[in-house]
Amino acid sequence: MSRSLGCMQLCENRGVPYLVFPKLHALPYITHGFSTKKGGVSRGVFSSMNLNFNRGDSDENVLENYRLFCRAAGFDFHKLVASAQDHHTVVRRVTAKEAGIGIWRKRDMQSVDGLITNAPGVVLVTYYADCVPLYFVDTAKKAIGLSHAGWRGTAATMGAQTVRAMQEEFGSDPADILAAIGPSIGPCCYEVDAPVYEKITALPGISPAECLHPKGEGKYMLNLWEVNRRTLVHAGVPAENITVGKVCTCCHSDLLFSHRVMGSQRGGMAAMLALNT
Ligand SMILES: [Zn+2]
Fold first, then answer.
1. How far is the CA of 87 from the centre of ligand 1 (A)?
2. C-alpha dihedral over 214, 216, 219, 220, to 10 degrees?
3. What structural domains does the chain harbor?
4. Which end of the chain is more exposed for a tag (fewer CB within 10 A), N or C?
């Protein structure tokens, strides 16, 4: 069972809805997904599929949500490896040795906003509630990457840093990489001011007219999807290889956690990506 949402598909299995990109879903050697607010056991502001620890929800609830989400979307709970996001651009290569980190094992590193692997079975996990998830699949070398890019990460070219890490670690050719830009706050809802405008327009390959819409009085509507898309093209990923999901977390706050809508009293969603064993 599924229906379209933006350029993504909203699937549901065992009462747990999740979003996928049709172009990635068609690849037989990967499993991917993006969670929603629904289908979990958490209550109140975390209701119900909260996948963030340390926001006030109980660890038991979050772990149970991970189990439910993994069972529904086809991931191995025991092979999850989570990021440690802090709006920087460190990309970490992980293997089966890191299984459980940030989920059922303690974090062993500070500041990891991107994860890459070529180890089948390892499930990359990053967290969201308006920031941009970036998915990468090297179709030739069979390697994957998953990165978190808020406006700071976007301004620091997180997408390009992830491509570069895949080039260094796996010998990836950007021309072989499929990329997908997941649910985040959209150009419809993301108002920013002059300091952000200046950082974004200083990026290579960015056209202010395509990425920022002036609203007057020093305010702009920022299109993080387009900035990330252009950054990936600038890094060598062919434009035809990039899918923009076009799902706004703020517009769909009935289905998705949005920081802009709920503030800090909220749960968080997760992006997941794995090479199949
Ligand atoms: Zn919106």
1. 22
2. -10
3. 2-184+242-275 (3.60.140.10)
4. N
